Amino acid sequence: MMGDMRQSLLRRDALSAAKEVLYHLDIYLSGQVQNSPSPSVDTPTLELVEEFILHRRMSALQELQLLEIMCSCFQEQSRDAVRQLIFSALFTLQGNQADESRMALLGKLVSMAIAVGRVPILECAATWLQRSHTVYCVRLASGLVDDYCSLLPGSMVPTLNNISSSSPQFCCQFITAVTTLYDLSTEELSPPVELLQMVVSWIQDDPRLVLVTLLNTPASSSQPMGSLDLTPLAGLVCWCVKSPLAYRRDRKQGLSNGMPDTKPEAGPLFSALHLSVLQVLLLLPGVLREKGLLGRLALMQPEQLTSLISDLSRLLEELNPLQGDTQTHTQLTLERLAQALQVAMAAGALLCSREDLRALCSHLPHNNLLQLVLSGPVQQSAFYPHVNTPPLGYSPRPLGPHLSAHSPHPTSRSPHPSSYPSYPSQPFIAGMAFPFRPSH
């Protein structure tokens, strides 16, 4: 039967053949969902998809028409299970030569779905982002940012503003992907201001947006190795903490190269984002307790914190730590780090002992608030039942190499030095008494 269908498709033009394969997918997978307890796509069907949708050469007009047909196909299919299977048949990466065509077509389809508001496609794309390897998720996100920031500057915020309410799961996964992509390690990997504005707007409108994937994921499920984090919290914390030093570095490099500083000011946006992230962390205990994961699931992994501290040390090396302006930015960075650590530990997002934190932060410059946080909670230990105890379990995603191992932007970095004589190191006074006590 498949042989006869293939012969029929070979006699058609590229667009007509692709449309016929989509129709076949819809009929075949609808039957699978109705009649099979575990519906799946067989190999002959995948081969038809690759040959007649991914490999056939089309003109630009035919490709646009194909994207419109796909949008209609997903919009008209009322059953989500069938839509997800069709999307999986088209875009699940198979580890073969067709994957490049898959990624190219996927980027164009999701970009069009954003532009014309095709929510079913965005919901399928959110599932794809949750199940695919980080490298490909970052690649998709990068293409979307290019489309709406580079090709159509000024279009990102108005175009994407309403998507947070219509497809929160896609927005949550998109934020996770862009915080992975833009790690502020270089000026090129600092998030565009338009993107930052949109992320801040989304989270301010609904702080729980950051937790949508966590809320929708069963506690017993596991994530694929190398996939995106369950929430963008770790990436957002890195943005907020590193931004004062990273943007100071970028401005300094631009001035030294004779380039005028014409970039919009991102500082207030990062300040607003930092406040929003702390508010999200305060929501966590209730969410984790409801799912039976309080004290068992670390949404901020120790290796992510290690990488953040290492990045801060490198940023401090690149700047003159004794310069007054740099001192101001350094103290702001350390205060944000201290606030994030304290709230994350109190909320159960970071399962790490204070002894480990003191060792990690031992080479950072002195900061009063950070000293206070690292010395221990002011309240009795029972106030934080899950902070100073070892985790009861582990993240549902198996721990693998550090995320940067999958980064599509490899960088060569010098070894981390053991000491920094140019500024005073962070002293740690165990059991030090502090005059401040909360009154409530």
Automatic annotation (TrEMBL):
InterPro entries noted in UniProt: INTS15 (IPR027844)
Region (Disordered): 394-422
Biased composition (Low complexity): 406-422
Name the UniProt record assigns to this protein: Uncharacterized protein
Upper lineage: Eukaryota, Metazoa, Chordata, Craniata, Vertebrata
